[in-house]
From TrEMBL:
Keyword Protein biosynthesis belongs to the record: no
Name of the molecule in the record: D-2-hydroxyacid dehydrogenase
Assigned keywords, A-Z: NAD, Oxidoreductase
Annotated PANTHER family: 2-HACID_DH_C DOMAIN-CONTAINING PROTEIN, D-ISOMER SPECIFIC 2-HYDROXYACID DEHYDROGENASE NAD-BINDING DOMAIN-CONTAINING PROTEIN
D-isomer specific 2-hydroxyacid dehydrogenase NAD-binding domain boundaries: 110-283
Keyword Oxidoreductase: yes
């Protein structure tokens, strides 16, 4: 048991403790642990820092959290730490909202340009030393629909608009005067709005309402020339339905950074489809991102020690930070 002047912080980090924790170590007892040791490390801990944000160990170790008051996760998505025990507790949950906005928006623009300018085929032809002239598509004037109107979705909207695209949003609340999207349609209107989009970008948080929302009906509703880009959560998509839609040419292509099973299995057809771009959950991971994640936790730790309101407090029922609490 530790006194009030020496709080105990458990850091779930696997076998690689994060750099930059020295300042926190000077004012707290810090316990670094992997999944197997999490339950023991939670006993008597005041704070849990889920640095390994892909870990699914927190629900199974929750019974050992006997004095926990705050959990911080080093990601924007909080689905690994949202479960009944967390929802029903008084423990405050915060995330790393804001760290990944710009890198992910650049990734999305890069995927749009890669499709429009046929870069993947150019690289394949270059490997074959083949000179094959083709015409490419314009990006300016194309319609991108972004599902997810939080900070990352807004950064994507601003980036695509800067490239000359027309952007609309799909969000929880409909509005016609949004500063980044202009028009935001309600999530209930997704299927009716999909036919008008040239690019569909999924960046919504994973909730019971959004899980599997991109299924056979959604892909059938898209125009045959549309491209689908997922930088949100793999579970937003029914993978088998996406593969079937690509094989049937119901949509023209997909850029996928997240998957319902990670790493993506080697036998997945997605690896070998010429109209699919696969990246290993890295769209937001620009150089220096790990240090920024620790800095964000440290900033919140200072607020917590001072008894001040924390940044990026998640609504545990919604599964994300409400815009009004940004």
């Amino acid at each position: 048991m530790f006194g009030e002047d020496s709080p105990a912080i458990t850091v779930l980090c696997g076998d690689q403790p994060p750099d930059g924790m020295e300042r926190i170590e000077r004012s707290a007892t810090v316990r670094y642990t992997d999944d197997d040791g999490l339950a023991d490390a939670l006993t008597g801990a005041d704070v849990l820092f889920v640095y390994d944000f892909l870990s699914t160990a927190v629900p199974g170790a929750w019974h050992a959290a006997d004095r926990l008051s705050w959990v911080h996760i080093a990601s924007a998505g909080v689905d690994p730490v949202i479960f009944p025990g967390m929802r029903d507790s008084d423990v405050v949950l915060t995330n790393s909202r804001g760290v990944f906005d710009a890198p992910i928006s650049e990734y999305v623009l890069g995927a749009v340009l890669a499709f429009a300018k046929d870069f993947a085929r150019s690289l394949r032809l270059q490997d074959e030393a083949r000179w094959l002239h083709r015409e490419t598509e314009r990006v300016e004037g194309r319609h991108a629909m972004v599902m997810g109107t939080g900070p990352i979705g807004r950064a994507i909207a601003r980036m695509l608009r800067a490239a000359g695209m027309r952007v609309t949003g799909i969000g929880r609340t409909a509005r016609t005067d949004d500063p980044d999207f202009g028009v935001v349609h309600p999530s209930t209107a997704l299927l009716s709005r999909l036919p008008g989009a040239d690019y569909v970008v999924a960046v919504a948080p994973l909730t019971e309402q959004t899980k599997g929302v991109f299924d056979s009906r959604a892909f059938a509703a898209m125009k045959t020339g549309a491209r689908f880009i997922n930088v949100g959560r793999g579970e937003l998509v029914v993978t088998e339905d996406l593969i079937a839609a690509l094989r049937a040419n119901e949509i023209a292509g997909a850029a996928l950074d997240v998957f319902d099973t990670e790493p993506l299995p080697a036998d997945s057809p997605l690896w070998r489809m010429e109209n699919v771009l696969v990246s290993p959950h890295m769209s937001g991971d620009a150089v220096g991102w790990r240090s920024v994640l620790v800095e964000r936790f440290a900033e919140n730790f200072d607020l917590w020690r001072a008894g001040r309101p924390l940044q990026n407090v998640v609504d545990k029922n919604l599964g994300y930070v409400p815009s009004t609490a940004a």
